[in-house]
Amino acid sequence: MTAATDMTSIPGARPVARKTPKAGFDLFFRNASFGAALLVLVLLAGIMISMIIGGWPAFREFGLGFITSSVWDTQNEQYGAWPAIVGTLSTALIALVIGVPLSLGIAVYLTQLAPAWFKKPVATAIELLAAVPSIIYGMWGLFVFVPLFAANVQIPVSNIVEGMPILGTILYSRSPSGLGIFTAGFILAFMIVPFIASITRDMLEQIPSVLRESAYGIGATTWEVVRHVLVPQAGVSIIGAIMLGLGRALGETMAVTFVVGNANRLSASILDPGSTIASRIANEFNEAMGLQLNALIALGCILFFVTFVVLVIARLLVARVKRY
């Protein structure tokens, strides 16, 4: 960097000498910033390598069968990840199906339709919900939602769809205790709503008001303003918010462990108990030894890979939206 000293020349004023910046501080700042960015890559690579090394004995013992097998037998040292993978993806999908429309509806209402006296309390409540620890959601789900869901939804629905093709497979519960894949997905939906709604609301509020006023000026309705003005403008941010919620749904542990049922089997019914990768690790990691411990670390490695794939898909979606 040039270390020249400039002299300002303002007519009628005394010339003031500008101090030359010290090159040492600039170099320190540059190196510190580079070190912080490099630390992220080192940590990511370190986590990935340690997970692969820890889970390698399980991958080597069972090969591809570790991913496709449904057996999890600790007595005979047979382990398969398929039920946990399906449970993780199923609960996350249910959470998105319930949580995304609810979040977008909240954000649009707060930015376009809500009166001023109602907007601030609701926005504050949403931010408070985002700060609630996950174990609170799990306890509420186990002691409040599960009994109500079993008595008012699970048992009546099972009685109605029993023996029906397709619906009888998907919605019939063999053990209507309230615990299950759908219950976990429902609780996850309420956990991701505050994140998606808050980010989407902030993004919609950043859109210049002249765009809304122009649309209203040519006779557009509120729905048309939202559909053709707000959503295209905030599309990238909305996708990012949804992916953030999906990331939390995939990796959530404590709340899901409370309500998913923790069954080591694969069921076609979303109302039956199941398990996720995170819940299985939380349940067994403290007492695991030998090959079981390696199998649990391999599960963590698979969850890491699934999350990475989700982020790649999110980047592709964002790039596609930017082109339009």
Helix and strand topology:
Blueprint: H1 23-62, H2 65-68, E1 72-73, E2 78-79, H3 82-113, H4 116-131, H5 134-161, H6 167-170, H7 181-206, H8 209-217, H9 222-233, H10 235-251, H11 254-259, H12 277-284, H13 290-323
Antiparallel strand pairs: 1-2
Main attributes of the structure:
324 residues; mainly alpha; two-stranded antiparallel ribbon; 2 strands; flat; disordered N terminus
Percentage of β-strand residues: under 5%
Q: What structural class is derived from the secondary structure elements? A: mainly alpha
Q: Which percent bin holds the helix content?
A: over 70%
Which of globular, elongated, flat, extended, rod-shaped describes the shape?
flat
Q: What are the segments in which pLDDT stays under 50 over at least 5 consecutive residues? A: 1-8
The tally of helices reads: 13
What is the CA–CA distance across the termini? Answer: 41 Å
Average pLDDT taken over every residue: 86
Please count the beta strands (DSSP E, at least 2 residues each): 2
Query: From N to C, what is the helix and strand string?
Result: HHEEHHHHHHHHHHH
Output the strand order for the largest sheet: 1-2
Radius of gyration: 26 Å
Largest sheet: 2 strands, antiparallel
